[in-house]
Amino acid sequence: MSANELTSGDFTESGEPFKLFAEWLKEAEASEPNDPNAVALATVDEDGLPNVRMVLLKGFDDDGFVFYTNFESRKGQEILGQRKAAMCFHWKSLRRQVRLRGPVEIVSDAEADAYFKTRARGSRIGAWASRQSRPLESRFALEKAVADYTARYALGDIPRPAHWSGFRIRPTSIEFWKDQAFRLHDRIEFRRPTPVGAWEKVRMYP
């Protein structure tokens, strides 16, 4: 059976991780009650202390996995400082997870602008109004900032803030995990020394 004909039960035979991820994400879109593209994002600060939070995957291809954020936020500052990150997708309805990690690059301005234009107008205003990860004196202060930027951009297009853009994780490791009886799970890991290297596939003990 070729990689194109793989079914859920024989994913360990796949030879290409991005195609397998696309298949699993498509199945998750049909089975997860909401946000099948939600993913735990792990970063590390200058002292080596990790942070993790949920974000939304906004795109992926053979170059990597893309999400967007305020670069002045804690995760933005940690990624800009360390230039590496990890992700973990968990699809409970399918009893599957995917883990990946690797170096991080900033998406192009053109790519960030194109995505920003697809966001709801209120979300674009929010990107201007929120000083993400910094202390907020009251809910009123946030609502006032939203009102101020809504008035500023009452007409016409809302430009993308310079501090708001996207990151792309270029994985050097992608692991696929599927639950099996008696905790004898199926795991395969794709590894490569650099983000442009050839993949090696390794089957892992559960």
From TrEMBL:
It is an enzyme of class 1 (oxidoreductase). Keywords: Acyltransferase, Flavoprotein, FMN, Oxidoreductase, Pyridoxine biosynthesis, Transferase. Substrate binds at K58, Y115, R119, S123, R183, L184, H185. One of its GO terms (molecular function) is acyltransferase activity. InterPro entries: Pyridox_Oxase, Pyridox_Oxase_N, Pyridoxamine_oxidase_dimer_C, Split_barrel_FMN-bd. FMN binds at residues 53-58, 68-69, 74-75, 97, 132-133, 177, 187. It catalyses: pyridoxamine 5'-phosphate + O2 + H2O = pyridoxal 5'-phosphate + H2O2 + NH4(+); pyridoxine 5'-phosphate + O2 = pyridoxal 5'-phosphate + H2O2. Its EC number is 1.4.3.5. Residues 164-206 form the Pyridoxine 5'-phosphate oxidase dimerisation C-terminal domain. Binds 1 FMN per subunit. Residues 27-149 form the Pyridoxamine 5'-phosphate oxidase N-terminal domain. Its cofactor is FMN. Pathway: Cofactor metabolism; pyridoxal 5'-phosphate salvage; pyridoxal 5'-phosphate from pyridoxine 5'-phosphate: step 1/1; Cofactor metabolism; pyridoxal 5'-phosphate salvage; pyridoxal 5'-phosphate from pyridoxamine 5'-phosphate: step 1/1. Catalyzes the oxidation of either pyridoxine 5'-phosphate (PNP) or pyridoxamine 5'-phosphate (PMP) into pyridoxal 5'-phosphate (PLP). Belongs to the pyridoxamine 5'-phosphate oxidase family. Homodimer. This is Pyridoxine/pyridoxamine 5'-phosphate oxidase. It comes from Rhizobium croatiense.
